[in-house]
Amino acid sequence: MPILGRDQMEEAVIVATARSAIGRANKGSLIDVRADELLAEMIKALLAKVPALDPSEINDVIVGNVAQSGETGFNIGRIAGILAGLPLSVPGHAVQRFCASSLQGISAAANSIKVGEGDIYVCGGVEKSTVPKDSNPMAGLGGFNKDLFGGTEGLPNIYIPMGMTAENVAERYKVNRQDQDEFGKLSQDRAVAAQENGFFEREIIPFTKADGTVVDKDDCPRAGVTLEKMAQLKASFRQEGGTVTAGNSCPLNDGAAAVLLMSKTKAEQLGLTPMARIIATAYSGNEPEYMGVAPIDAIPKVLKKTGMSISDVDVVELNEAFAAQVLPVCRETGIDIATQLNPHGGAIALGHPFGMTGARIMTTLINDLQTLDKSIGIETMCAAGGMAMATMIERLN
Questions:
Q1: Segment 293-310, tens digit of pLDDT
Q2: Total-model pTM
Q3: Which of 123, 220, 344, 352 is catalytic?
């Protein structure tokens, strides 16, 4: 049966990506840069890569963001599009699925393309994690619901600090401190090597600040990390018997990224060679108190949709919120850390600007596949509240 006048479903393809360097929150290279302006510059750079595209043909700008207040408030999707110089006829909106927010935007755009709702979407993500230490921008008017702190029968602690979820996961899945530290060091070593060999230069768009300073390198990767130094770090969230530290967790960060999706038909009409196609996306939910392992369910779901097994996947980009959750996810799903996982480092080393991360990881995954001359990749990530997403792509050039 034709769908919206089409003989068959369209394919959604990625034709361009752009990301900023990732700054350390509160003190890093992007602390004095507005989040809306940073994202706007990434959108400008994204579209500059596709001069054949008439911006007025863009159907929507979809931006992932967690805070949705201050510099990213009042509909950051619309604001970033206007700041980027898009015609006022191009609308925009914001989406929020915590850490998976911009991956959600990519999924929404791909689905719209597949059913014929539109042909061209700019998907972005941005976060400015620099906030006063004594405030919680998520609380908002009226504060949190008293029934969702885990004390009401049958309801979870939806507001549990993410570090405590990592401690819970470490305890349930028996992930010890040494294994977490070893993975943290591995992430740093891989990211430092990737920085040194120019891997990230292929995906980072240099950003020139008002004072002329150019930000073109991620702040957080650290050379010379040793297990001895990591062992000296104190537990960050559970003082007695805790195993989750600053060394085996992602830091707080600032950054922005953008991805341009089109229908395969539109890309062909414009004479473009797509970078990758979206094959399938799956979602999952679990106990909020153990949110980090939600990808254990999302990954098999996306594999089932495609009739593949984990051994068919060349690269898995799993967001490294905490080593405590990365290790059981890999163990339970069969991901080979040595040959498949985050070959150029992950969020423990690079950082995790919440709303940016989904689009940043997609950018890096495509870079991975191109650099390694591989074909099939999965991006997957947990999200606060006990959720996860997994998206499979195929490299096309």
A1: 999 999 999 999 999 999
A2: 0.95
A3: 352
Q: Which two tokens stand for residue 303?
A: 């594999």
Active site residue 382: yes
Annotated catalytic, 344? no
**What's CA 137's distance to the chain center, in Å?**
20
Averaged pLDDT of the chain = 95
Is 330 labeled as catalytic in the residue annotation?
no
Cross-strand bridge partners of residue 23 = 254
Short-list 344, 288, 335, CA closest to 316: 335
Crossing angle (nearest 10°) for helices 177-196 and 323-333: 90
> Please, which pLDDT band fits residue 151 given cuts at 50, 70 and 90?
confident
pLDDT digits 0-9 by tens, 6-56? 457 899 999 999 999 999 999 999 999 999 999 999 999 999 999 999 999
Type of residue numbered 112 = S
Selected catalytic residue, list 99, 123, 220, 250: 99
